[in-house]
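Q: Structure for this?
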Amino acid sequence: DVVMTQSPLSLPVTLGQPASISCRSSQSLVYSDGNTYLNWFQQRPGQSPRRLIYKVSNRDSGVPDRFSGSGSGTDFTLKISRVEAEDVEVYYCMQTTHWPYTFGQGTKLEIK
Amino acid sequence: VQLVESGGGLVQPGGSLRLSCAASGFTFSISWMHWVRQAPGKGLEWVANIKEDGSAKYYVDSVEGRFTISRDNAKNSLYLQMNSLRAEDTAVYFCGRILRGSSGSHWGQGTLVTVSS
């Protein structure tokens, strides 16, 4: 199975400042069709997850443009350009290239 | 888009439970569908998915042979039959739709399964 490793697991942030989360996969996430199926999800405790990013860098509909994704191969990053109070949630990367699909451990954003 | 799970509850170890997910607001019959779970205080774990016509199904190793995913496109419904349940299966189970290559990811509110004697 593909292991997804996020860092850090806890990220103290200052409102209005940028934040960055890393996600590394144990093998390349490039699929046979040439696409890289790396997703980023956001989840508030007790609620269902919400996808922010698909195929590394594409924002889902309605996602603010302060969220951006980048990376390739096995190394990926989620960036928030200016953290807002509503962004203080848990973030997961998830690969949908290889069976079984797998999530990272989650990164919890916390106010400094 | 709306996804509504049901069927969760308290079950003894070794018991069975069948989860259901009622879908509306999108064309269910042309969508891969998924089950994802989250144990109390833990992260998300993908459990299983099923192709549009039900001809292909995939499972995480820990549930292979115990859980069966199925669907009824005429009823816009997704199911998860869970047998030989273990304490480690205790979790909130979410049904969802993930469009792998385009915008669109939707999840239900989840249903809690508790395996305990």
